[in-house]
Amino acid sequence: MYTGTIVPLITPLDEDRRVAEKSVARLVDHIRHDVTALMPALTSGEGWRLTEQQWHDIVAHTVRHSHGLPVLAGIQLPDTASVIERARTAAGLGAAAVVVTTPFGASVTQEDILGHYRALRAATPVPVFLYNEEALSGNRIEYETLQRVCELPGIVGIKESSGDPAFTRRMAAAGTGIPVFEGWENLLAEATGVDGFIGPLANLEPALCNDMLADPTAARQQEINTVCERHGVFRDDWYRWVKKELRIRGVIDSDTICEEPS
């Protein structure tokens, strides 16, 4: 079972917006002793903006330089068929699991969401990490639906980014046997009972994230919030500021971000 701090890796790019393998290797080496898994190409990795080649390269490079850590490949595509195709590619690249949102759109129903994950599990052998959010997909998984999805074989974790700590606590206490991870740094003290944390701060300060999980006090939460404010983690374009700080520290060579998708 997955526990502890999992890092949603930023995607290091060179000035031509190619994935920079040497920077990927240094980034993994920078954090690998304090994290339990690597999660490339999710939102902090600008996953919804990556070209197919960029997505392929960040997953492949992460697997190559993982030092044995499991690689959980993010997939942020709008429809089930596209997700299935990319999940098969991730399995071929050596990913231990894929991290998948709901289909995109405000009109997506809870039955659509259940059908989406059923189809994914039926079509691919790779295990699935659920990503419950709303900012990108335009919808979220309701409690009863999330429980039903957790009954499917091969569901191995939940990145719970609803922003509602009461919902997160309820899901953590549901007894599904599926580990639940808080996805917001500022809610860690309120998200009691979770199995771990997945958030962009882990690219910079994974040991501090571990300290927060071990000692989720108000004082520790304030420390987390202060560090996040300092490094831009709470900004809308947090990935830009995390990259800047990693470049300043000499971990990556460039803080180039992805272009907006055309």
UniProtKB/TrEMBL annotation:
Record-linked InterPro entries: Aldolase_TIM, DapA-like
Annotated keywords: Lyase
Domain of life: Bacteria
Family to which the UniProt record says this protein belongs: Belongs to the DapA family.
PANTHER family listed in its UniProt record: N-ACETYLNEURAMINATE LYASE (PTHR42849)
Protein name (record): Dihydrodipicolinate synthase family protein
